[in-house]
Design brief:
The longest helix is centred in the N-terminal third of the chain and has 32 residues. The protein is mainly α and about 200 residues long. It starts with a helix and ends with a helix. It has one domain.
């Protein structure tokens, strides 16, 4: 084999077109398996879905926290990963909200404190009954998603504006959103963990 053929073979682009449909096939297969799990045991499905949801929610919230921290401290080390973290944080709405719907529908199976007038509730749950009620569960969940959407959306918007204009105004706006947002982020994260 001549050196020209080796060079031509070595520089040929990698063809991954035959693998293009694999993610969609795996997504459909996972959806079918989830539906089978739901049909077999709703309780096991609910707990499994909650675990998977919390795992991916923690990744999205961690990315949002990194973006907020970047703007709060005007950090230089996080500039290379900021755009990536912004992309992940924007998955909080609507993707994670849609994935929350099975939890919202199956909440009574997941959380025993949601059953009204449950005599088995211990004193600590009875003392927190205003927060631990079905109505407040949905109100708190909606509030958390609203705050996360607002933060991720505004920080992403001003980041893209900064790329377009190169002006200082978007940087100041992102710092302002981050300074107010860290308080909202801390409160919503605490409520989400408690609920």
């Amino acid at each position: 084999m001549s050196s020209e053929n080796k060079t031509a073979t070595a520089r040929a682009p990698l063809d991954l077109s035959r693998w293009r449909n694999v993610p969609m096939i795996l997504t459909v297969a996972g959806g079918i398996l989830a539906l089978i799990g739901l049909a077999v045991s709703r309780e096991e499905f609910a707990y499994s879905w909650l675990l998977a949801f919390m795992f991916f929610l923690s990744i999205c919230l961690g990315a949002l926290f990194l973006v907020i921290t970047h703007h709060l401290f005007d950090a230089g080390w996080s500039v290379p990963i900021r755009r990536f973290c912004e992309h992940i944080a924007t998955m909080l709405f609507p993707t994670m909200l849609l994935l929350f719907l099975p939890i919202a529908f199956l909440a009574r199976r997941i959380y025993p404190w949601m059953i009204e007038a449950n005599p088995k509730l211990d004193y600590s749950l009875q003392a927190k009954q205003p927060l631990f009620s079905t109505t407040w569960f949905y109100i708190v969940a909606a509030g958390c998603f609203a705050v996360w959407y607002l933060l991720s959306n505004r920080l992403r918007y001003w980041s893209l504006e900064q790329d377009k204009t190169g002006a200082a105004l978007p940087t100041y706006r992102m710092r302002r959103w981050a300074s107010v947002g860290i308080i909202g982020f801390a409160l919503t994260l605490t409520l989400a963990v408690v609920m």
